[in-house]
């Protein structure tokens, strides 16, 4: 049972345009969400996060939106640049207890075309 | 570079051998997490440790896998009697505390022949 879903395995966007990556979750206990970027043969790199008490968080070209009622979040990258080509993972965690492991989606491969 | 360090980066083992993966957390971090990534999959949480304590091992296979984070030295993920299905990328992450951002190392790619 996949609790974090990224339904688009890949996404192709023209350089300079907006990239929108989507993520859905099923566990209503999740209250903290993160996006990571990963290049081949490297570890995931933290991009941006959002707490469930917010619906938007912005950091430079990256903005994450959270819609709790729809259990949906999205990452917007604008303008998209060639170096943004990578696999993007959505991750979530739940409060409570000592458990702090992240639950990851399967990733979306973003390809920025010149 | 004070990032999360993992070694070796690549490890080849034959079936039945033992694999030891090491992780040194970022400076100032006392929380360590291990994840496994199978091909075409996302990362799957395995275990969460603080110094000398296993906090959550709900993602660890019940047999052959163990983890430790001693008072001194790196965290170790140990896989005994490896099988081909253990072939994967194993990532370690560290954080400065509960619910703080986790920063990942470059991973160890284990190949079992």
C-alpha termini separation of chain B:
33 Å
The number of helical runs of chain A is 0
How does the major sheet of chain B shape up? 7 strands, mixed
Task: Spell out the helices and strands of chain B N to C.
Answer: EEEEEEEEEEE
Q: State the end-to-end distance of chain A.
A: 38 Å
Instruction: Identify low-pLDDT runs of chain B.
Output: none
**On the 0-100 scale, what is the average pLDDT of chain B?**
94
Strand content of chain B: over 45%
Number of distinct helices of chain B: 0
Helix % of chain B is under 10%
Give the oligomeric state of the chains in this entry, treating copies of one chain as homo and distinct chains as hetero. heterodimer
Q: What percentage of the residues of chain A does DSSP assign to strands (E)?
A: over 45%
Largest interface: A-B, 27 and 31 residues
Structural class of chain A: mainly beta
Helix content of chain A: under 10%
Overall pLDDT metric of chain A? 93
Q: Structural class given helices, strands, pairing of chain B?
A: mainly beta
String of helices and strands of chain A: EEEEEEEEEEE
Radius of gyration of chain A: 14 Å
Q: How would the global form of chain B be characterised? A: globular
Please give the number of β-strands of chain A: 11
């Amino acid at each position: 049972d996949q609790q974090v879903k990224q339904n688009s395995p890949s996404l192709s966007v023209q350089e300079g345009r907006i990239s929108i990556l989507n993520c859905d979750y099923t566990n209503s206990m999740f209250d903290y969400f993160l996006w990571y970027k990963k290049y081949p043969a490297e570890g995931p790199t933290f991009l941006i996060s959002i707490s469930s008490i917010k619906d938007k968080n912005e950091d430079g070209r990256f903005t994450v939106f959270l819609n709790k009622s729809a259990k949906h979040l999205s990452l917007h990258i604008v303008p998209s640049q060639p170096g943004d080509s990578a696999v993007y993972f959505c991750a979530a965690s739940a409060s409570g207890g000592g458990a702090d492991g992240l639950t990851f989606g399967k990733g979306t491969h973003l390809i920025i075309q010149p | 570079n004070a990032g999360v360090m993992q070694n070796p980066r690549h490890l080849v083992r034959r079936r039945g051998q033992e694999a030891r993966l090491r992780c040194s957390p970022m400076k100032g971090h006392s929380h360590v997490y291990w994840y496994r990534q199978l091909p075409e999959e996302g990362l799957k949480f395995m275990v969460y440790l603080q110094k000398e304590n296993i906090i959550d091992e709900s993602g660890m296979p019940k047999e052959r896998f163990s983890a430790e984070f001693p008072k001194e030295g790196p965290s170790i993920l140990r896989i005994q009697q490896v099988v081909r299905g253990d072939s994967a990328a194993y990532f370690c992450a560290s954080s400065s505390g509960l619910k703080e951002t986790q920063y990942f190392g470059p991973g160890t790619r284990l190949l079992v022949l």
